[in-house]
Design a protein that fits this description.
The complex is a heterodimer of chains A (404) and B (263). Chain A contains 17 helices and 2 strands. Classes of the chains: A mainly alpha (404), B alpha/beta (263).
Chain lengths: 404, 263
């Protein structure tokens, strides 16, 4: 807590976003999303210069399909990170959720949708158990979920049985990642999305004006709508020129938008940020802190299972290594790279999507360049380390400025 | 002690923690539109007294009257229901949330109509109410959408106090509201305390800073070793007299002998 330096901070906090101010906040790491979009552009530029197949419609469609699973898992990871906790079991849970679905659908002949629901519910149940252990016994979440990581991997082996692999050829399951929409449907989706965004933006501005509150200038709102509109239209145009808009992309973006809404517009979401910011303050404000924690862990494991099911749909199988390897680390690294803090209370669900895009692009580009796994791992590790350092520096800056 | 007109009164309240007698036979009251400063040395029982009123510590003996009626305050929600709000020294704000979000934390308002169906928060209404509340308290915060973590200690303290008023309490307990604040910031917070008095609230302020106490208090209540060591009208007493009562150098009406307790 500082007193003399406070005036400068107050002025700054209350000032608008002038260009110099923008640059300063950008350098300080406050505008993480702008930073990560620029980083993404840079990554794309570098790979495009090295390999001109990178920015082709076919490859970008591949990229979208590659990031679906990890992006969905990251959505749940973001929720946990917002609490200031971590879930190391999401990789294993994604494998187990997919395993449950595959075994029920293939070996027991369940209707595919029922099997999918069962796989997701398995994830939900796991999250409830882990959340309850964490809150009831006060064990650090990384220990609870580290135990989970091992245990659920074991359960996956058990569920898969002797063969160790279950192949999926049920079209309703493979269709999750194998369905592409026609150009017309793609454009209708683009139109609906842009229209909805414009309505929400303009409606929000009008509501604030009617209430006599400060509203952003019309030009700023229209510019935002234009940027988002162009981005959506460009994405659909590119996807249409290859195989069309994939269902997988809609599922990923749909979950991102839904949880972005939940975290920023609902009481539950507000309480997640409060618990992550200051759990004691949240408790004193009458928030049921442990209930929030348990529900968030259940969401994280459910999203992990959903991601695992998408991965299985793309791989056409579930095997003993499903959900293993670097999936867990990538799912956590993505949001952190895109600005969600490991210290809790700061970040957005969008960072799951942006982070998955960054990590996916790096991985995809290095594959195109036919680099060895050794190089891929080292580069990805380096990027994660850089992102975490930026996060830590931003936090130090805030503390130095009297902000905790 | 008479109970006529008193909003909150404690009669013969005692509290011990094991062998330590934190409060013994304390009588205390606060009237509407009155600021009572609660002073005393470290371990004199100030915090225990406030925590007893706030429902954090149940009292062992004696009784608490609220608006003349005997009440039982066994938990913080009991105190809140009666209309007793407490602002703790460590603020209990979330630094990562903005002013509006902090003010309404735990009592967020949901939108009506179609947006209410999807459980959407009514941000515009909460923001309007925040402006109104801060305006009536003459708290100057230009941007209620700025993160509380970016604000000065004085502004944060004002937000914390304003937050306690949203539940429309009748009594507000402030634990060291000016600790760690600079001169200008302290003045802002003390002005806010005066405005609470103007609104007809009963205000209890714990403070170590006698200059602040004389600035805002109508009455100064001194605790020493868990016992009442004096109850002074702020206009008729002096700095020296209060210091004497705090340290035990000058005995007051019910002052404990120097060998009293150990708390």
């Amino acid at each position: 807590m500082s007193t003399p330096a406070a005036t400068a901070e107050e002025v700054e906090a209350q000032g608008g976003l002038r260009p110099a101010e923008f640059l300063r906040r950008f350098a300080r790491g406050d505008l993480a999303e702008v930073r990560v979009i620029l980083a993404l552009a840079l990554i794309w530029l570098i790979f495009q210069l090295q390999e001109d197949r990178f920015l082709t419609a076919t490859n970008l469609t591949n990229l979208v399909l590659q990031i679906t699973a990890v992006g969905l898992i990251s959505v749940g990871v973001v929720m946990v990170l917002l609490l200031g906790e971590i879930d190391l079991s999401v990789g294993a849970v994604s494998g187990l959720g997919a395993g449950v679905m595959a075994v029920l659908a293939v070996k027991h002949g369940w209707h595919p949708y029922l099997a999918i629901a069962a796989g997701i519910l398995a994830g939900t149940g796991i999250g409830l158990i882990q959340g309850a252990l964490f809150t009831r016994f006060g064990i650090p979440s990384f220990v609870v979920t580290l135990a989970g990581l091992l245990a659920w991997q074991g359960v996956l082996l058990k569920v898969l049985g002797d063969t160790g692999t279950v192949n999926i050829n049920e079209s309703k399951i493979t269709g999750l990642t194998g369905t592409f929409y026609s150009d017309t449907v793609g454009w209708i989706i683009a139109f609906v999305c842009i229209g909805a965004f414009a309505l929400v933006s303009l409606g929000g501005r009008r509501r604030r004006q009617k209430a006599g509150l400060s509203a952003p200038p019309m030009a700023a709102v229209l510019t935002r709508i234009a940027i988002v509109g162009v981005a959506i239209a460009a994405a659909v145009a590119v996807l249409n020129s290859a195989r069309g808009v994939p269902l997988a992309a809609l599922i990923l973006v749909g979950f991102v938008i839904a949880f972005q809404y939940v975290t920023t517009r609902t009481r539950f979401g507000r309480h997640i940020y409060a618990v992550g910011g200051n759990a004691e303050a949240a408790r004193r404000a009458g928030i049921k802190v442990n209930r929030i924690r348990i529900v968030v862990f259940a969401i994280a494991s459910s999203m992990a299972a959903i991601g695992g099911i998408m991965a299985a749909s793309r791989l056409l199988a579930v095997n003993q290594s499903s959900g293993g390897s670097d999936l867990l680390l990538l799912a956590i690294a993505g949001p952190v790279i895109a600005g969600t803090s490991l210290f809790g209370g700061r970040g957005t669900v969008w960072s799951a999507l942006l982070g998955a895009l960054v990590i996916g692009s790096i991985s995809n580009g290095m594959d195109l360049l036919a680099l060895e796994s050794s190089v891929k791992f080292m580069v990805t590790g380096g990027v994660l380390l850089a992102a975490v350092i930026v996060d830590a520096l931003a936090r130090q800056q805030r503390q130095a400025a009297g902000r905790v | 002690m008479s109970t006529n007109g008193a909003l909150l009164s404690l009669e013969g309240v005692s509290k011990s923690f094991g062998p330590v007698q934190a409060l013994s036979d304390v009588d205390f009251e606060v009237a509407p539109g009155e600021v009572v400063a609660l002073v005393g040395d470290n371990g004199a029982g100030k915090s225990t007294l406030v925590k007893a009123i706030a429902g954090i510590h149940a009292i062992d003996d004696g009784r608490i009257l609220f608006e003349g009626n005997p009440v039982r305050i066994a938990s913080p929600p009991d105190a809140t229901r009666l209309g007793i709000a407490t602002v703790y020294q460590d603020l209990a704000l979330c630094d990562n949330l903005d002013v509006v979000e902090n003010l309404f934390l735990g009592r967020e308002e949901l939108a009506s109509g179609p947006a209410g169906v999807v459980r959407q928060l009514d941000e515009t209404d909460m923001e309007q109410q925040s402006h109104e509340l801060l305006d009536t308290l003459a708290v100057t915060i230009t941007d209620v959408r700025a993160e509380v973590g970016t604000m000065s200690g004085g502004q944060r303290q004002q937000v914390a106090i304003a937050r306690s008023l949203l539940g429309e309490p009748k009594v507000v307990l402030l634990d060291e509201p000016t600790a760690a604040l600079g001169v200008r910031q302290t003045a802002m917070v003390l002005n806010l305390v005066k405005r609470l008095r103007e609104r007809g609230l009963g205000v209890v302020v714990i403070s170590h800073n006698l200059a602040d106490v004389f600035e805002v208090a109508d009455r100064i209540y001194v605790l020493r070793l868990g016992r009442e060591a004096g109850d002074y009208d702020a206009k008729e007493t002096t700095h020296e007299e209060i210091v004497g009562a705090i340290t035990g150098a000058t005995g007051a009406d019910k002052a404990a002998p120097a060998t009293g307790g150990e708390a």
